[in-house]
Task: structure prediction
Amino acid sequence: MEQFLLAMATFCSVAGIAATAVLLTRERRATLRLRRQNTALRADLDARDQEVRHLAGTRLPELLESLHNPAVTVSGPLHDARRLGPVYEQGIDAAMELVAGSVERVRARADQSAKSALRGAMRSVQSLAGEQQLVLSNMQDRHDDPDTLSDLLRLDHMNAQLGRRAQATAVLCGSWPGQQRAASTLSDVVRGATSRIRDYLRVEVHSPVNAAVTARAVEPVVLTVAELLDNAARHSQPDTAVEVNVRNTHNGIAIMIDDAGVAMDTEEIQHATRLLSGERAADVHGLGDPPQVGFAVAGVLAARYGFTVSVDTRSPYGGVRAVVFLPSELLTDVPEEPRAPEAAAVASGAAQARRAPAEPPDFEAPLDPSAPTTAGGLPKRTRASAAGKAAPGPGGPPPETGGPPVRPARATAAGLGAWQRGTRSGRAAPPPDSERKDPRP
Amino acid sequence: MRPPRDERALVRPHVVTGGRAHPSRNVFDLVTLVIAVSDRTTGLNPEQRRIVTLCRGGALSVAEIAGHLRLPVGVARVLLSDLMDSGHVTTRAPAPSARPPRLQLLQEVLDGLRARL
Result:
């Protein structure tokens, strides 16, 4: 009996030991597995932490920088998608896109509102400068005293610069150049541009080309040339000249502006070429301080009106050569002079008798209704012949004029004669300052 | 004088005269007659060329020249003074104030006086 009990106890303990061993082994295996899993999860967590730190510290700042400066590249994630899991990866990408999109939208909206505010302000400055120019022109007509005129010319010059600055900024903000003009010769276009810059006395214009710019392109070309001239004068010594040459080419005309200043380096040329191409819409935020609008305005206008501007050649004087190329579509024939001075004399000269040279000029000559008149409807007299201009004989019929004269010739003659007699008698008894009197009638 | 301009000139007067408002000589008033004496137009600016063309072979007053060029009279004076200095134009005395009475009229007066005396 005792033996049986002993055997039973031994068996039980062996079985227990065996069971414990099995359990222990399983437990140990499970622990090992969990530990491995834990390590892996910790590594994943570290990777995600790193990734988030990378996103906040590197990728987002790079992304924001790249929106201002296209040269900056945005770095990718530190770990690959397999490691991070597709959901996490997509989340990070979505966040990047959202930030980029919202920054772009905010920028676009800010640019739009800045532009429209600036445009409105510049338009009113522009129209005030225009009105002021009219007033100045009328004052220049009325005030004859050289000192007054000198001041008026200086005011006119400053006003022209003011108008140009306002106009350039308005164009950059998407406005039109503004003023309608008649087709003008290239020489007038270049000199019109010269009128609007500070150092206009340094500009030498050589324009042997006899062509004109079509009406719609006059103001844009004038503004472009003015900006380029201003750049050229600003970036060269005050005692050097800025030379403008106009050349015919086989499908257009090139206006070349050479300065004797400092040449641009490669990077500046690339930047200028990018602006002048007009590809990128002008951005009022990127103009710098003080704002450099010249090339940007030229680029906008060139793209809009179909001419080209380049600054990538060197001038023979060491500075920059800016070339404005106007294609044939923007050119036209030279507009007729407002009057042909020869025509009137030839037309009425045929049936006329000679007079003695001492006779007064043709006060009795009939008025030619085709002769030009002033805006007020008064006839403009054409020149009188020095060698005794012919006039119709006392009894001879007046030359065929094709219509009634504007005013009886005798009345005109009497009026002009009275005027001259008055001037003479006035001058016969001169007050000491009679020369400086305002000649207003 | 001239009616107010309705359009703004492209080339401003300060460029036309190079900023000068004082003529180099003081011989031009509104009715001074100007005659071109030279046909050379090389070296002249477009406005001066037009003056020479306008006055070529004829006389035109300063006021009329300014009117044709659509420039202020003061500016035309500066241009004319330069042209006179360079020998392109000259001035002519204004026309006599009144024409001499006709011979026939004088004869009639004389006859009338004789008849009375």
